[in-house]
Design brief:
The protein has about 200 residues and is an all-alpha fold. The protein has five helices and no strands. It is rod-shaped.
Length: about 200
């Protein structure tokens, strides 16, 4: 069974009346029920109510001081208000400074995120360049193999051409010798016929 805020506030008052500061454990024990979530929610509300009550109701000391000297109480109230106002102003200044620091930190985070994104883009680009380089190296190795094979083929053709040229040279030499022998025979036959 859930508890109501009024039941919770009454329990806090009972715990305080026994001389204890209200806590989750003491209030839960006093009520005999209540979830941690509900108690936490009610504690926040109750503390706010207590702070508002203390701000609007004069303390026992103030009541005693007013009874003794109404003028002194007014002066003390005014001094207290001035002190509180000064503290509030100081807290506002501190809050403003912290807000600026928080904004500066936020700006740093944004810059870091932007730098991270740029770095990731550069890493992707570097990976692309590396992949392209690897592809070029593979094509270069393939071209080198083809060039070596072409070089070997050219060397074989050169050897064949050299062999053919040598054969042609030999053939020319043999043909020249045959012509020379034939001329000698024709010349010898011509001399014999002329005799």
């Amino acid at each position: 069974m859930t508890i109501t805020y009024d039941e919770f506030a009454a329990s806090c008052s009972r715990v305080a009346a026994r001389g204890h500061r209200p806590s989750y454990r003491l209030v839960a024990t006093d009520l005999g029920r209540g979830s941690h979530t509900t108690l936490r929610e009610f504690f926040g509300r109750w503390r706010g109510d207590q702070a508002a009550k203390q701000a609007t109701e004069p303390s026992a000391e103030m009541k005693a001081l007013e009874a003794l000297s109404p003028g002194a109480a007014a002066r003390l109230k005014e001094a207290f208000r001035a002190e509180v106002a000064a503290e509030v102003a100081a807290l506002r200044l501190e809050n403003t400074a912290q807000a600026r620091e928080l904004q500066d930190l936020h700006d740093v985070v944004v810059d870091l995120e932007r730098s991270r994104d740029e770095l990731q883009a550069r890493l992707v680009a570097a990976d692309n360049v590396r992949s392209n380089l690897e592809a070029l190296e593979a094509r270069s190795a393939e071209a080198a193999l083809q060039l070596r094979a072409t070089g070997e083929h050219v060397a074989a053709v050169d050897r064949s051409v050299a062999a053919v040229q040598e054969g042609i040279g030999q053939l020319q030499s043999d043909t020249a010798k045959q012509f020379e022998d034939l001329f000698k025979q024709v010349d010898a036959m011509t001399r014999e016929q002329l005799r």
